[in-house]
């Protein structure tokens, strides 16, 4: 064999050996990278599994701040709140829940809860639906209980938000809706206060009247008096 050929083959084998050693380094480094990638994929799958099928979303624009201004004494009073069909955000969900806010009092005694439906811009009631809290249409809310209102005492800086039971059924943008709540005539309701009357009222407007205004039937006339101001108690209308 020629000496120059021998030297060339020797150099080639050395180069290949050196090349293989270099390639060993990335292969070793890829092991922890592969493990990390697998771990991240498992964590991502786990996180996605915990995301609820339906995310909480507003159906209409609720009140932006909590002020709790100028509350009347609520014993024997009703509040009615317009939820305009024209204010619906996006596609109508198959259910809804109303959220009430309290900033004062130790117990709220509710005599009745209702949702009226009218054609948009009309005052003639086309349908009524009973609303409930813990399946009761006349609940008493213990505002002094930490199991109901975790941060005590309830105030404008520590408002207590109460979600009514979810109601099945879609809201139509072709209709208007009116939430009604009646507070019974007792001393507990003399001291309660609503969290609303916000200057950033969103789409909701409300008014209050003396007596139980929550029992008007179908084809009846909606009680008048909408002042256009933000409601006291109804803060948000959401899909769940």
Helix-strand layout with pairing:
Elements: H1 3-50, E1 77-83, E2 95-104, E3 107-119, E4 125-130, E5 140-142, E6 160-163, E7 167-168, E8 175-183, E9 193-194, E10 205-210, E11 234-238
Antiparallel strand pairs: 1-8, 1-10, 2-6, 2-7, 2-9, 2-11, 3-4, 3-5, 3-8
Structure description:
The chain has 240 residues and is of the alpha+beta class. It is 20% helix and 28% strand. Strands 1, 3, 4, 5, 8 and 10 form a 6-stranded antiparallel sheet that branches. The protein folds into 2 domains: 1-51; 77-238. It contains 1 helix and 11 strands. A hairpin with a 5-residue loop joins β3 (107-119) and β4.
* Tally of strands: 11
* SSE run: HEEEEEEEEEEE
Protein structure class: alpha+beta
Q: From the alpha carbons, calculate the radius of gyration and give it in angstroms.
A: 32 Å
Largest sheet, in brief, is: 6 strands, antiparallel
Number of domains: 2
Helix content: 10-25%
The averaged pLDDT comes out at: 81
Assembly form of the protein: single chain
Number of helices: 1
Shape: globular
Note the beta-strand portion: 25-35%
Task: Write a short abstract of this structure.
This protein has 240 residues and is α+β, with helices and mostly antiparallel strands.
Please supply descriptive tags for the structure shown above.
5-stranded antiparallel sheet; 6-stranded antiparallel sheet; 28% strand; 1 helix; 2 domains; 240 residues; 11 strands; alpha+beta; disordered N terminus
């Amino acid at each position: 064999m020629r000496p120059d050929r021998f030297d060339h083959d020797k150099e080639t084998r050395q180069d290949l050996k050196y090349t293989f050693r270099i390639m060993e380094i990335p292969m070793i480094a890829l092991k922890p990278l592969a493990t990390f990638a697998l771990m991240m994929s498992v964590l991502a799958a786990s996180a996605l599994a915990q995301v609820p099928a339906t995310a909480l979303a507003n159906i209409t624009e609720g009140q932006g701040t909590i002020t709790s201004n100028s509350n009347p004494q609520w014993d024997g009073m009703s509040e009615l709140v317009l939820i305009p069909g024209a204010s619906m955000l996006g596609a109508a969900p198959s259910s809804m829940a109303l959220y009430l806010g309290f900033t004062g009092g130790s117990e709220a005694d509710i005599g009745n809860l209702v949702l009226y439906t009218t054609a948009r811009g009309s005052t003639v009631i086309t349908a009524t639906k009973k609303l409930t809290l813990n399946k009761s249409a006349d609940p008493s809310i213990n505002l002094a209980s930490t199991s109901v209102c975790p941060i005590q005492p309830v105030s404008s800086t520590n408002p207590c938000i109460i979600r009514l039971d979810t109601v099945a059924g879609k809201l139509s943008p072709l209709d208007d809706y009116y939430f009604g709540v009646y507070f019974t005539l007792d001393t507990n309701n003399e001291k309660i206060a609503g969290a609303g009357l916000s200057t950033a009222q969103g789409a909701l407007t409300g008014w209050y009247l003396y007596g139980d205004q929550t029992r008007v039937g179908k084809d009846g006339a909606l009680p008048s008096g909408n002042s256009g101001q933000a409601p006291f108690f109804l803060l948000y209308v959401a899909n769940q």
